[in-house]
From TrEMBL, chain A:
InterPro entries: ABC_transporter_permease (IPR051393), MetI-like (IPR000515), MetI-like_sf (IPR035906). It comes from Propylenella binzhouense. GO terms for biological process: transmembrane transport. The chain crosses the membrane at residues 9-32, 69-91, 103-122, 151-178, 209-230, 259-281. It is a multi-pass membrane protein. Belongs to the binding-protein-dependent transport system permease family. This is Sugar ABC transporter permease.
UniProtKB/TrEMBL annotation, chain B:
This is sn-glycerol-3-phosphate transport system permease protein UgpE. Residues 77-266 form the ABC transmembrane type-1 domain. Gene3D superfamilies: MetI-like. Part of the ABC transporter complex UgpBAEC involved in sn-glycerol-3-phosphate (G3P) import. Probably responsible for the translocation of the substrate across the membrane. GO terms for cellular component: plasma membrane. It is a multi-pass membrane protein. Belongs to the binding-protein-dependent transport system permease family. InterPro entries: MetI-like (IPR000515), MetI-like_sf (IPR035906). It is found in: Cell inner membrane; Cell membrane. The gene is ugpE. It comes from Propylenella binzhouense. The complex is composed of two ATP-binding proteins (UgpC), two transmembrane proteins (UgpA and UgpE) and a solute-binding protein (UgpB).
Amino acid sequence: MQTKWWTPYLFVSLAMLGLFVFRFAPIGAALWGSLQETSLTGEVRFAGLENYTYLFSDPTFWNSIRVTLLFNLVINPLQVVCAMVLALMLVRPGPFLGVFRASFMAPMTVSIALTAVIWGILLEPTLGPVNGFLKWLGVPPQPFFRSADQAIWSIIGIATWKGAGYWMIFLLAGLIAIPRDVLEAAEIDGAGWWSRLVFIILPLMKRPLAFVLVADTAINFLMFAPPYIITQGGPAGTTHLLMFEAYQSAFTYFDHGRAMAISVIVLAMILLIVGLELRLLRPKGAH
Amino acid sequence: MHERRRRRLAGAARYAALTLIFVVLILPLYWFVMSSFRPVEDIFRYANDFGIRTLVPTRITLQNHIAVFRSEFTRALFNSLFVCTTTVALSVFVNSMAGFAFAVFEFRFKNVLFVLVLLSFMMPFESIVIPLYSISRALGLVNTYGALILPEAANGLVIFLFRQFFLAIPRDIYEAARVDGASWWQIYLRMTLPLSGPTVAAASLLIFIHQWDAFFWPLIAASSPELVVVQVAVARNMSVDQTNWGVLFSSASIAVAVALVPFLLLQRYYVRVVGLGRT
């Protein structure tokens, strides 16, 4: 029986329609919307680059860029290091490792919104048990999310609590793939644990590490729930991450053009990251 | 002799560190879920005065959980379960069809379309959430179940999973069926799909958990009280109603359990399939 030329298109049509309308059209909508201005009366006019020039002259926007960059410069390397430490601790055989591995991964099943709710309570300065525990250790109570000095670090901490076990999975797979005889040969030659790590394991883990770093950045760049649920961007704007700023522009101040301009900047950043990711995922030697 | 002692010491240090990390990662979750079984007045009673009673409940009750099932939270539970199951059904259907086409047919623009599929799942959903809101508003979807379900129906990762599975089925069986006069639709529905049970299960779990965890999109696209989903309802309990701690602890614990239990039951399998889509 002859296959009609349109049969394949019929099979992909629903999925492709969904992807175009709900994944790719929004990119166009952001670009187009960022060039328009909606007045309070609802009139739309073409505004050229006004939204961008206004944005670039706004200290609130620059603060959120600064906070987002600082956040990412700290959290991404931190999560990669934590994930690597967890993976290294689990890669050698031993008793009970299955239990440890499962428990390290359990936090990844807690959604980011619930992570924010749970840790918002745990780190509550007066009610929360963490300060109770610190008191027991003889450490004075800490303000955590309530202080401009600690809030962003607390968010970094709770996001790492959730994320480290997830990224560990990828690194553990990479470590297991390292041929055992390579490591054994080095051990026989008298290489200590540290020199094996630095001269053999890390060079062989370059690709999985780079992949995890890039993929993790794409996630953390878009972090939203903790500032929304716990800090509302405060205190004093210290947790005012870019996605929270985009949310506020759109749904607190109803500044459509500004929200779209921020979305375009976010998308440009994400496309850059995805480009890097694709390069890293390409098989070795292929060009 | 010296070497053996050194190894034993290193082993002990390793397990001490593993245990410490275990405590840091699990104790917070344990304390939270355990507290939901305490009488409301006990929840914070021992929190500030750290000791054995902080971690071991002196009184256990189901009163918080019973209260939750008598509160508005049942609406959120219904909405989440409805949205999750509908999305799973729709998504498995739509994406398996596309995966079938990418695996079986040769057609113009196939490679271009497939690159778009890959791009769509490498681009985190959150990056397009705000412009997606304008699109959904233009389509009249805002504050309907459609807003929660339709944008999640087509899923690049699920298309990819199905394509990989269908590629492994020998083409000869299709050719034989074609010679017998079967249409491609019949082949897909009667032969290929029934064979792909494990992939359907994996995709269903992946989509279900993804929808269950969704927060940012439901927050903006379906903000009316009738459409509130579990994650948003819990976050609102946190910010608005600080007096009802029992309901907050219980509702959040239920929300955690729905995502945690499949992981505990299906560990290795879970990591292989759901792990791909989780962040």
